[in-house]
Structure of Sulfide dehydrogenase [flavocytochrome C] flavoprotein chain:
Amino acid sequence: MAMDRRDTFKLAGVAAAAAALPTMTLAEEKAAASKTTGKSVVIIGAGFGGLTMAKALRKLDKDTHVTVIEKRSMHMACPLSNGLLGGLDDMSLSMFVGDYGEPAMKHGYNFVNSEVTGIDRKAKEVHTTTAGAVGYDILVLSPGIAYDYEKQFPTWSKEKIAHVAAACPAALMPGNEHVALKKQLENMDDGNVIIVPPASGKFRCPPAPYERTAMIANYLKKEGIKGKVIVLDTRPGKFAKAKAFKESWSETFADFIEYRGESTVTDVDPVAKTITYEDADDKSHTEKYEVCSFMPINKCSPVIAMAGIEHNGAGYAMMDGYSFKSKTDSSVYVIGDAVTHKIPPSGQTAIWGAHRAAKQIVAQLNGKVEDPKGGLPAKAANVCFSMVNGAPEEAIMVTHTFSADESGVLKGAGNVPKPKDGNGKFRSTGTAKATREWFAGVMREMFA
Ligand SMILES: Cc1cc2nc3c(=O)[nH]c(=O)nc-3n(C[C@H](O)[C@H](O)[C@H](O)COP(=O)(O)OP(=O)(O)OC[C@H]3O[C@@H](n4cnc5c(N)ncnc54)[C@H](O)[C@@H]3O)c2cc1C
């Protein structure tokens, strides 16, 4: 559907009116819309990056007119969701969901619940399924990831992919996958749970599959379910926080966890509930499961390609030096998991990047330049916690310092510390307490 720029601005005015004053007259709508000319920022994706960005922009410059476009009607946070699967005390679904309307009203930005289907950079318009075209001066992309079953299993039909995705939830994206996995665990009989981490490439929250392993082992133990968590990993035992995970797996769930490195999954049969894989010697094995969380190779959300900006083979956006500007277009910024900076794809990184990018955008809108190297190196810019035990509740952590690498990229260096209250171990109850506090903090960052 074609719309001209006048209609586009009218839509922005309508959205503003809906958020601020539902009874505006048409004349007032137009006046409100005209105020935004030159300072309209449209954000695609209301996840960790997008919601942080919207609030930060409105706080930094009240003249900025901000519109967030999101395809989902409700937020479901991924961090700590493995704790929900693990049956940790006092954890319920309500902790993880957020209402988009509340922060939009409070901070004075527009929330549009619609899916983006196209981006016209020449006209500076974003096209949506239900809200028409939305104009921008600056566009921010924070659309997160997508799954790449097609690359991993080129012979699988669309139907097979859909069947495996539904039957063996990856639960790496906000939405109903975590709920589906939890229901499967609640309904399972004695038997094994199989976890398959993404086989290769960059993937969302690298410790997540291994935290899930510990938490599902906790669930089996707590519920008295006779079975094991079997991890079929392509890696030879080297993964995020590996030393810390292995220490706690062997000391808390030795009878419940079996890690099989150098395993390449070749097929999943969701009807027979079997998974087939090849070991390091190319020997094929078929294993029966009760529940399976199969995490496919990740790629970037197609929104980056939709914008026609330069990206790598997996769809992640090429960046302009250390900044959060895309390499291709100085009016298009990219944050969150969708960037090619060499920093870990995490919610904390998305928040950190959103704050930096917001400063860069406000400077640009006001004819100034924010130094993209300012404040670097940034110590503990990313802190990522993983729950590893339920009784007592214990967690491990990794911190990353982000710096301006000489090669011209923004780069992270990680450290897995042993906490003071850990008695020489990587895990501690204090770290678990900090995990819960961190999570409450990031939910406040996005929704308060
Ligand atoms: C199990 C698990 C545990 C995790 N634990 C941690 C942790 O402990 N600490 C941590 O820091 N991080 C953690 N993460 C990672 C964190 O959730 C992500 O890195 C973070 O969500 C990335 O933010 P984002 O804004 O890039 O993407 P998202 O938060 O996924 O947001 C992207 C949004 O864009 C929307 N969108 C996509 N396409 C369109 C479209 N066409 N139109 C409209 N809207 C669209 C999506 O619906 C989505 O809401 C974890 C992740 C998982 C899966």
The longest strand covers residues 378-390. The mean pLDDT is 92.
